[in-house]
Amino acid sequence: MNNNVIFDLFLLLKKQYTQTMKFKKALFFFSFNLSFVFAQDVNIKIGNPQIALNEAFTISLTINNEQIKSYGGFPDIPSFQKRGVSTQQSTNIINGQISFSQIYTQNYVPTKVGKFRLPNFNMEVNGKRFQVTGTVIQVGAAKQQQAQNDPFGNDPFADFFGRRSAKEFVDVKDEAFFALNTNKDKVYIGEGFTATLAFYVSESNKAQMNFHDLGKQMQDIVKKLKPYNCWEENFNIEEIQPEQITIGGKKYTEYKLYRATYYPLNKESVKFASLPLTMIKYKVAKNPSFFGNNMQQDFKVFNTKPKTILVRELPPHPLKDNVSVGQFRLEEQFSTKKIATGKSFNYQFKIVGDGNTASIKEPLQTPNKIFDIYPPNVYQNISKNASGITGTKNFNYFVVPKEPGKYYMGDYIFWVYFNSRTSKYDTLKSKIQLEIKGESTINTAVGSGDYNGFLDLISKYNNTQINVDKTKYLKIAANIFLFLIFIITLIVVTKK
Question: What is the edge-to-edge ordering of all strands in the sheet holding 339-340?
Fold first, then answer.
């Protein structure tokens, strides 16, 4: 019986054993759309801190009984260069219990000899954050390398039966894309639109992928993304949370990487160029085996499509260049309902809505003799959530009424804005009527009798302008000067 027959017989026995013991699901690396429910166990391990100049330092991420859906944050180490991530998967069967693990190892190559500190760092794995204690790495002189055989690098059964050959890896077609989406395609100057940068993976995707050095990539991407002619309100995404969505009737997992609301400052169109994202994508072994690595790390670049947001000018208006754009409402509050002349009260004029809260200017006032209205204290709050950005700006006025009667506060304080929904200018003003009681204080508002006495004293003095004859005084000064010269000359002559 030749080796080929023996090998085929072995494969048949192995297949039969697998079916009998119901171990098909244990071989999860044959397909990437299978999922299992086990207790998740994550371990981040730092490698040997004493290495030679021609050896690699490693940090390994191990997760048991669950596939790694997302991870990020292998740290950068000064004087070390990252040299790719190696992967390993294994399946164990102990007492009829199935367990499996995935190992991702980041390799670092030192650039010089010495001691280097790896500080404490955090890593996010499947949406959870893990803290890792750092260490001191000692890099010594390069040493001679000896050839070593990896007992698990190949299938020992293939070697036993004389069938050893280079393992062939093939690409698996992915169903994923990288996209920049905006909630509006055209806006007015000052009107906000939200841009979301996300990676999308189809529910039917078979290829296994992971993010690659995402922190550094996003720094470069955001620099290219931000338009120079817009005010930005960043959502500051700190943790990537997968979200199930439907696009065109097809289910996808969305990974939001960046989100911001932009407010154009001029009529120039906002243009977003195509942006690249490099992902780790794994090839799979054409003939997978129980032993050895059945996956090979590769990279693929995904690109967004260019996008342009058209910006329109606001219609003609006297306040065209000084109004906010959006959708707003007024919330107001009075500190007291009993209002008397000469007694102060607080009036809160709060603007709430969807727009650039930071750019909201102080409401306008109508000149009047009914109220003394002092400059307001201003407070603002900006809230960012899944639906967008909303904000409030509160103008707290100190008001003193001077004349009794019934008055609408909206006739004295109001705020003009451009309503982006109706494409018209609108005004926020109070509809509450105030009833002021008491006696008029308009004529007594200047001050007490001391001020009046001072004014009476000023009136007693004649304010007529006095004309001074400068020529007359010059002649007098000249005569005095000549007289002094005459006296001095007389004394000198007398002495002689």
Answer: 339-340, 433-437, 405-408
Q: According to the per-residue pLDDT averaged within each range, which of 44-48, 289-293, 472-476 is highest?
A: 44-48
Residue 431: CB partners within 8 Å, gap ≥ 6?
Answer: 408, 410
475: alpha, beta or left? (left if phi > 0; alpha if psi -120 to 50) = alpha
Q: What is the DSSP string of 236-300?
A: ---S--EEEEEETTEEEEEEEEEEEEEEESSSSPEEE---EEEEEEEEEESS--SSS--EEEEEE
Q: What are phi and psi of 119, to 5 degrees?
A: -70, 170
Side-chain half-sphere CA neighbours of 28 within 13 A? 22
Q: Which of 143, 146, 79 is nearest to 108 (CA)?
A: 79
**Residue 67 tokens, joined:** 């596939």
> What value does the CA radius of gyration of the chain take, rounded to a whole number of Å?
41
Q: What angle do CA 105, 107, 111 make, to 5 degrees?
A: 165
The whole-angstrom separation of Cα 82 and Cα 104 is: 14
Question: Using H for helix, E for strand and C for coil, what is the string for 45-93?
Answer: EECCCEEECCCCEEEEEEEECCCCCCEECCCCCCCEEEEEEEEEEEEEE
Instruction: Kindly report whether the global pTM for this prediction surpasses the value 0.70.
Output: no
SS3 305: coil
CA–CA–CA angle 395, 401, 404 (5° rounding): 140
Convert the pLDDT of each residue in 218-238 to its tens digit: 999 999 999 999 999 998 887
Q: Which of 100-114, 264-278, 386-400, 431-445 has the highest mean pLDDT?
A: 264-278
CATH code of the region 321-437? 2.60.40
CA–CA gap between residue 333 and residue 13 (Å, rounded): 83
b/e sequence 390-415, b meaning 16+ C-beta within 10 Å? bbbbbbebebebbbbeebebbebbbb
> CATH top-level class for 31-148?
mainly beta
Rounded to the nearest 5°, which phi and psi values hold at 284? Answer: -120, 155
Whether residue 112 is predicted with pLDDT greater than 60 in this model: the reply is yes
pLDDT of amino acid 444: 67
pLDDT, tens digit, 9 for 90 and up, residues 388-397: 788 999 999 9
Delimit the domains of the chain by residue range. 31-148, 176-312, 321-437
Do the two domains 31-148 and 321-437 of this chain adopt the same fold?
yes
